[in-house]
Write a structure and sequence with these properties.
119 residues; Ubiquitin-like (UB roll); five-stranded mixed sheet; 3 helices; 18% helix; globular
């Protein structure tokens, strides 16, 4: 960590209200590094578990944070809060297999402009 770098105290709230990975983080840390820590510390007794960082969305102040940005780039508030701990929300959204979401060319040709099947 660079000298004079700002530190941010964060905790991450998951879908059932449990807080995980409560710690102090450097403002230069990337969102993807944070997600790696969350995946590693995810409670094993939960029914919904992320398999990778791509299954997670971090939300702060109503915005989904981008993996390649740092906490400073994401404009996370530094020390302006009276409590000092910032809570981010974590959403688990597993990737959907492409073959389940893509329609075949034949199926697409059967649909008209209103999305109705033409028989």
């Amino acid at each position: 960590m660079a000298e004079g770098e700002k530190l941010i105290e964060l905790k991450f709230r998951i879908y059932d209200g449990t807080d995980i990975a409560h710690s102090t983080y450097a403002s230069s840390m990337t969102v993807s590094t944070l997600k790696q820590k969350i995946v590693a510390e995810w409670p094993q007794d939960k029914t919904v578990t992320p398999k990778s960082i791509n299954d997670l969305k971090l939300i702060h102040a109503g915005k989904v944070l981008e993996n390649n940005k740092t906490l400073a780039d994401s404009k996370i508030t530094f020390g302006d809060l009276p409590v000092g701990v910032i809570t981010m929300h974590v959403v688990v959204q597993p990737a959907i297999a492409k073959n389940k979401t893509e329609k075949s060319q034949e199926e697409m040709q059967k649909l008209n402009s209103c999305g109705c099947v033409i028989l």
